[in-house]
Amino acid sequence: MSNQLDYKKLKEFISEKLKVSIDSIEITQFKGGFSNLTFQIKTPEKSWVLRRPPFGEKISKAHDMGREFSVLKALQNAGYQKIPKAILFEEDPEIFGAPFFVMEHIDGLILRNKTTELETFEPKDFHNLSKSAIDALLELHQLELQNSGLLALGKPKGYVERQVVGWSQRYFKAKTNELRAVEEAITWLNSNLPSNENVGFIHNDFKYDNMVLTRKTPFEVKAILDWEMATVGDPLMDLGTTLAYWAQQDDPDILKMFNLTHLPGNLTRQEVIDYYASKSGHDLSQMLFYYVFGLIKVGVIAQQIFKRFSQGHANDPRFGALIHVVEAAGRQATKSITTEKI
Q1: Where is each Aminoglycoside phosphotransferase domain found (predicted)?
Q2: Cβ atoms within 10 A of the Cβ of 305, count?
Q3: Could you tell me where the beta strands, DSSP code E, fall in 43-171?
Q4: What is the dihedral of CA 102, 107, 109, 115, to 10 degrees?
Q5: What predicted TM-score, i.e. pTM, was given to this entire model?
Q6: Beta strand spans in 26-126 (E)
Q7: Which of 52, 85, 147, 293 is paired with 71 by a 20 to 30 Å CA distance?
């Protein structure tokens, strides 16, 4: 597949579907991110956001645009407010090289490493944001499932085992380097599955840069983005992934590239666990398992992207360094297993 995108066909499609003048449409790609491609569609009156898969080999449900659109519609119908409104889904790859969907654009602050607003952030702001983020995660995990229809989005029974087996298989399918620590952690996960499972609606990629914050009070979560991996499963698996992204000041520098939780004022991982436990009612005594799973999952995602890069399907130079993320995630996982510390 060519990595060139045809904006002409897309503009014609947008003009017809959204009833706007084709000459007024501007399309720009958002920079950053390691997964799906995201674009702003802008006219003088309004703007929208378009998402489509990356080039090259797909990563399971992570790039299923139809599913992400369905998740947003289901949450919308269930009355959940912290989402962009889903506008339309298009399956025909002839229009923009792959299936895509369009959603409303929500104005706000998205916190990334080079965000200019970071200059005004103080430790107290990060402290408040830490709690607001976990509160937003708890809100998701406590959504009513049966009457809302959200239960239909997943198969919670056996979820944990399926995830461990699935991500293990994905690693070996995408493997390029011999990384002993990763494989040791995968073996440990498959041998230490928890006996009990919880059920809730989960995001599966919950971190600071997937949240839109209000500009005046930048610790207030206005919306949550990137729902492609959302489902119904064990909330502690979701928390484990969040903890894997929740880098601390004393973590390897390369693991700090995905989240700003290592800056002063943020809760530590243990404080996140304690805060979540105080409000969720879940037994978190086996949180080590979920944290190690999160690290391996993050490592596998990086491995899959690195493989696409090594095969020439992606030319972003950042992707070439992701093999070091895989290695660091594996080392962090085996260290936590050995020390029994998160």
Answers
A1: 26-258
A2: 27
A3: 47-52, 86-90, 100-104
A4: 80
A5: 0.90
A6: 26-29, 37-42, 47-52, 86-90, 100-104
A7: 293
Identify the helix (H) or strand (E) that includes residue 220.
none
State which amino acid sits at residue 230. Answer: A
| 3.20.20.70, 3.90.230.10, 3.90.1200.10, 3.40.50.300: CATH of 116-339 | 3.90.1200.10
Sign, Cα dihedral of 94, 98, 100, 106: negative
DSSP secondary-structure letter at 53?
Answer: -
* Contact yes or no for 323/254 (Cβ under 8 A): no
Domain residue ranges in the chain = 7-104, 116-339
The span from the CA of 88 to the CA of 215, in Å, is 27
Residue with tokens 């378009």: 50
- Structure tokens of 138? 């708890």
CB count in 10 Å sphere of residue 61: 14
Percent of the chain at pLDDT exceeding 70: 95
pLDDT band at 2; cut points 50, 70, 90: very low
Question: What is the H or E stretch that residue 294 is in?
Answer: helix 287-310
Longest dimension (CA), the chain: 61
Token representation of residue 47: 């703007």
pLDDT mean over 170-198: 96
Please give the pLDDT value at position 211.
96
- The string of pLDDT tens digits covering residues 79-92 is 999 999 999 999 99
User: Is the distance from CB of 245 to CB of 207 less than 8 angstroms?
Assistant: yes
Task: Give the type of residue at 299.
Answer: G
CA distance 245 to 269: 10
